[in-house]
Amino acid sequence: MKGKLIIFAAPSGSGKSTIINWLMQEHPELNMHFSISCTSRAPRGTEQHGVEYFFLTPEEFRAKIANDEFVEYEEVYADRYYGTLKSQVEKQLEQGENVVFDVDVHGAMNIKKAYGSQAISVFIQPPSIEELRRRLNGRATDAPEVIEQRIERAEYELSFAPKFDTVVVNDDLQEAKENALQKIAQFLGITNS
Question: What pTM, to 2 d.p., does this model score?
Fold first, then answer.
């Protein structure tokens, strides 16, 4: 059976990665797999081409953009691209894998538009901007001005929530995990999970 697409987006600090990792590790019945993305950055450490990423030169990346080969892509910095090839997604779907995307709101909208009912878009929402600020401060990984930039970005991203198929409010992490599980299992047609 052909796989489906599960698209996640959320403001930084919403708990998206925690929820995705829990779903993938604790619920193998969901058969969720990340797509292998492309990047124009050099491999780090023991990263291998075709395992963690497909490593391309900026020129190769731009040629694939020109050929409309990406489901979504972003130029994060000058000549530093990240993106997902349509061919890679199709290959994984044909193998019956449910392909997971952890992208920004624009990437999520583009993927959903391209795949329609074959995809579910899930927005992980913090309970409030104040709580998000508290979480980002609690991480103690960012300078105050970086946190303020993330808060501004979060306010912008929150305006996209109504455009998603489902919104999971992460007020209580365990409840948010169970809510996400229920919605995704329902979308995939998996019962008794």
Answer: 0.87
